[in-house]
Amino acid sequence: MVSETSDMSFLPYGRQTIEEDDVNAVISVLKSDFLTTGPAIPAFEKKLEQTVGASHAVLCNSGTAALHLAFKAIGLTQGDKVIVPAQTFVATASAAMHEGAEVILCDVDPSSGLMTAEYVKDALRKTAGPVKAICPVLLNGSSQGIDEVVDLAKSQDITVIIDACHALGGYYDEARIRRIGGNQAHVLTAFSFHPVKTIAMGEGGAVTTHSEDFAESMRSLRHHGIQRADFKGSLTQDYGAPWYHEFHSTAYNYRASDMQAALGLSQLAKLDRFVEGRRLLVAEYCTHFDGDPIITPVASIDDKHSAWHLMAVHLNFDKMKVDKIEVVKALKEKNIGTQVHYIPLQRQPLFERKDQQALTGADRYYQTILSLPLYPSMTKEDVAYVSASLKGITQKS
Ligand SMILES: *Cc1c(COP(=O)(O)O)cnc(C)c1O
């Protein structure tokens, strides 16, 4: 049987937007002298610093590596406690666990999925001993309540590592002046440039910070921990030789290539257009779902500071005859891709422990959430098609 949508291409929940000049940027690197650790790396870093208003940006090869570098830079070590929201991708937590830190999962608001200051206060009250870092996640690109979390952390002298993998291009404030990733004391911000994120590099990530010390430490850590000055070794006679370098600790190869950086640089010039494109599509979705008894978008189109990463909707299953698996399958048959962000971390074998507090907000968020297609090259017609399809499926009686 030929379905009514057989001639329509698949709409994934997210995808990159690569244009001719992006392709040419990569090709020119391929024809140049440096495929890695060449001029595209500092060029990208400088552009990212300017874009978000940070003193330093350190490029690396994934958002996960960025989070890990940030945790290393603040000196996270065995037994340190780190507060992470239960509604996030595993990397927010595992990057800290690599250093032997104890991850305290924090509950989130069941409608926004965000770890607000109230939930952080609650987690702090229940945690014995000092907390080294708080890691808010700007889920779906939303920065709602982030200032309060940062202020709370600062008041207790706790470092903040923001997982802004969803939020490049977003702002702290409604006036859209203070960019996510911009300078703030005691705050490091991690970004991802995976193809579904705001800009694509294939694989890539970065940390922005106000601190030269943190930046220098992360630049060394991403490149095997090489140090050229600062003599502490035993080869005194070779100190100052052209090849001279030292290793003081184990580190990583977290470098991005010049092909990736050139792609990122080309994409970064389009950041505002991409974010605005996403915002218009979210607004379109919201119009379609306005007044719907079953479908409620997580984002409010009045939220001026969002980066509009995901088109997440809550579905009211109490009023539906089908469950989430059936909805996802029915949409797939209509060439519509979806995803669930995320299975709460306390439900993962990595975290399941008997002593784990109930995290009901994270569970409730998970039960009703679904991410619909959202990326800048979608059309209004695509949005109308997805919206009508979802309505048809959810209202099936
Ligand atoms: C994508 C993502 C990461 C990891 O980024 P990678 O570049 O895929 O390593 C971490 N946290 C969140 C919230 C993400 O969405």
TrEMBL record:
<dbReference type="GO" id="GO:0000271">
    <property type="term" value="P:polysaccharide biosynthetic process"/>
</dbReference>
<keyword id="KW-0808">Transferase</keyword>
<feature type="active site" description="Proton acceptor">
    <location>
        <position position="197"/>
    </location>
</feature>
<dbReference type="InterPro" id="IPR015421">
    <property type="entry name" value="PyrdxlP-dep_Trfase_major"/>
</dbReference>
<dbReference type="InterPro" id="IPR015422">
    <property type="entry name" value="PyrdxlP-dep_Trfase_small"/>
</dbReference>
<dbReference type="InterPro" id="IPR020026">
    <property type="entry name" value="PseC"/>
</dbReference>
<dbReference type="GO" id="GO:0030170">
    <property type="term" value="F:pyridoxal phosphate binding"/>
</dbReference>
<keyword id="KW-0663">Pyridoxal phosphate</keyword>
<protein>
    <submittedName>
        <fullName>UDP-4-amino-4, 6-dideoxy-N-acetyl-beta-L-altrosamine transaminase</fullName>
        <ecNumber>2.6.1.92</ecNumber>
    </submittedName>
</protein>
<feature type="modified residue" description="N6-(pyridoxal phosphate)lysine">
    <location>
        <position position="197"/>
    </location>
</feature>
<keyword id="KW-0032">Aminotransferase</keyword>
<dbReference type="GO" id="GO:0008483">
    <property type="term" value="F:transaminase activity"/>
</dbReference>
<comment type="similarity">
    <text>Belongs to the DegT/DnrJ/EryC1 family.</text>
</comment>
<dbReference type="Pfam" id="PF01041">
    <property type="entry name" value="DegT_DnrJ_EryC1"/>
</dbReference>
<dbReference type="InterPro" id="IPR000653">
    <property type="entry name" value="DegT/StrS_aminotransferase"/>
</dbReference>
<dbReference type="InterPro" id="IPR015424">
    <property type="entry name" value="PyrdxlP-dep_Trfase"/>
</dbReference>
